[in-house]
Amino acid sequence: MSVASPHDQTLDADSPLAIPQRPELAGASPAEMELLEGDISSSRQANNLLQTRLRTAAFALGFGFLIFTIWSLIQLLWDFPSNPGTTTLGVELVTTFVLMGVAWWLSSLNQASANCLRWSEFLIFSAPAASLLVMHYRNVVFLAANYSFIPHISMSGWLILIFTYNIFVPRSWRVVMTVCLVMASAPIVATAVAAMMHEEIRRSLMFDPSCIIEMVLILTATLSACLLGLRMIAYLRGKVDEAKELGRYHLREKLGSGGMGDVYLAEHRLMKRPCAIKVIRPEKAGDPRSIARFEREVRSTSRLNHWNNVSIFDYGRTPDGKFYYVMEYLTGLSLQQLVKKRGPLSPGRAVYLLNQVCNALNEAHSIGLLHRDIKPANLMVTELGGAFDMIKLLDFGLVKSIDPSIQNGEDTDLTMAGSLTGSPLYMSPEQAMGNVAPDQRSDIYSVGGVAHFMLTGKPPFDAGPTLKILLAHLHEPPKAPSVERDNGLIPPSLAFDELVLKCLDKNPDNRFQSAKELQSALQQLPEYHDWDANKAESWWTSNCSHYQLQNG
Question: For FRET with 542, which of 77, 179, 364, 393 sits at 20 to 30 Å CA-CA?
């Protein structure tokens, strides 16, 4: 499998260089056009996949109803005792025409819109369901009128419809199971309605309810099979993802998952160099906002080259439209893991690591990028080129430009998909309120929260639900780390306490105004020389074998 480089693509009406010709991009800035182009192309690929599957499902169901329509016509013409009657024949004929018509319509469209596909999906599965409901009702009435009890009622049509939706419609397992549950409930509801309207049906069911029990058991078994099938498909998809190649890279094993995608350990096929690849999740592939955020993350991160920021080597798309990028493979522990496993850090080591965090932010802020999600889980403590206790700042998925003119042009949906942007435990008051555009001082506040966590093992505010934590960031003064640090270790100096509290000031004007200013203050602390490269190497040599090293 090969993935074309973005620079190797043939120019056409859909190429990035032709974006100004698109009406939906008229008047957009270059940055917005690049972002929207990713949205449109990724959404198109997802729609194409759904259109193909719905067309196939419509043809399959339409052909099935055509067969049964012909059989019903033969029974009617030859006057079989069990002929279904003209009503059933008419229902089957109309359903066949609807399904074949939708299939033909989807085949004739070059690119169906999302709204068209939603209506097509509704018709493809609601028309057969309505037809089966009518036939089921008439079948129950016919059997009750001709037998003292209702014998076996065929569920084959419902089973075919349920399995067709389960196989052909690429939805989440919750959506698929909800729709299948509605379909499975329909014949039971139809039987109950028939019993309410016909006395002979009630008598038959009271005499022998086995047909109802059998119907429920069959449909329950079908739903169980569908659920197991969905889980197996998801499992196999994951295994395929682990085994397949993305461009020049071979995926070896899954390392972890985040809000946007999955991270795999990979290897360059020719260089045999280990790397980490982040791939957008299948369920996110059809969401333009998720894809836009994912692409924004890689574009922003690829501009960074300081050794304290994670490095991006490559990026591309798979033939089925999934976006991925390749970053350096890191071994070590996140700062969150390090403190949770070993307890609060010594003040000297905290200064040593915070100084590197400032290095990373200096570069990001200098090119106009605000991280907005600085927290211990996004800071990797690793070994790099023989140097130990090296910090890597990860996950620029919520990155935003500091430039207000660019902020005003951004789509707020990209950063607020129904939830807060960032971690509430380390979120600045202005970021929590959302009524003021945060700047680099918002990241400084988060660094202060991380410093508090390093020294005490807990964030500045961590009691209660999310809303209570956000209100604490807005109104409650944080405690000094030396007050919180009650584990018998050497407390931070008064100057270190004041530095952390200055970072955590509610008023951005009272904080350090830049990462460089914070870095200068760190270098003036008495703890600045308490930890160095030699102590870091000694610690890692003594302790790193106790942990399973993993990529961040």
Answer: 393
User: What does DSSP assign to residue 386?
Assistant: T
Cα gap 370→443, rounded to integer Å: 7
* 391: amino acid identity, one letter: I
According to DSSP, residue 309 is labeled B
Number of Cβ within 10 Å of residue 548's Cβ equals 7
Higher pLDDT, 282 or 129: 129
Q: How many residues does the chain have?
A: 552
Neighbours of 519 (CB within 10 A): 18
533-536, Cβ contacts within 8 angstroms, sequence gap of 24 or more? 533/387, 533/388, 533/389, 535/349, 536/349, 536/352, 536/387, 536/388, 536/389
Predicted TM-score (pTM) above 0.70: no
> Per-residue pLDDT averaged across 412-436, rounded?
66
Instruction: Identify the pLDDT of residue 84.
Output: 64
* Selected residue with higher pLDDT from 88 and 342: 342
Q: What share of the chain is helix, strand, coil (3-state, %, to 5)?
A: 60, 10, 30
d(CA 64, CA 513): 70
Among the listed residues 269, 274, 174, the one whose alpha carbon sits nearest the alpha carbon of residue 226? 174
Tell me the C-alpha distance between 318 and 18, whole Å: 22
Q: What secondary structure does DSSP assign to 336-376, as a single string?
A: HHHHHHH-SPPHHHHHHHHHHHHHHHHHHHHTTEE-----G
Strand, helix or coil at 84?
Answer: coil
Q: In this structure, what DSSP letter does residue 463 have?
A: S
Please state, in angstroms and as integers, the Cα–Cα distance from residue 466 to each residue in 33, 458, 471, following that order: 36, 15, 9
How confident is the model over 33-81, as pLDDT tens digits? 333 333 344 456 667 778 888 899 899 998 988 988 888 888 888 876 6
Match 């976006």 to its residue by tokens. Answer: 323
Q: Which of 314, 373, 497, 505 is catalytic?
A: 373
Q: How far apart are CA 384 and CA 363, in angstroms?
A: 19
d(CA 298, CA 304): 10
Average pLDDT for residues 206-211, to the nearest whole number?
Answer: 76
Half-sphere exposure of 197 (CA within 13 A, CB side): 10
Distance of alpha carbon 83 from alpha carbon 68, whole angstroms = 12
Could you tell me the pLDDT band of residue 259, with boundaries at 50, 70 and 90? low
Rg (CA), the chain: 31
Torsion on CA atoms 5, 7, 8, 13, rounded to nearest 10 = 110
Tell me whether residue 373 is one of the annotated catalytic residues: yes
Confidence class of residue 197 from pLDDT cuts 50, 70 and 90? confident
CA proximity to 548, closest of 335, 239, 331? 331
Residue with structure tokens 């918002």? 442
Q: Are 367 and 406 in contact (CB under 8 A)?
A: no
Give the Cα separation of 153 and 188 in Å (integer). Answer: 11
Cβ-Cβ contacts under 8 Å for 124 (sequence gap 6 or more): 54, 57, 58, 61, 99, 102
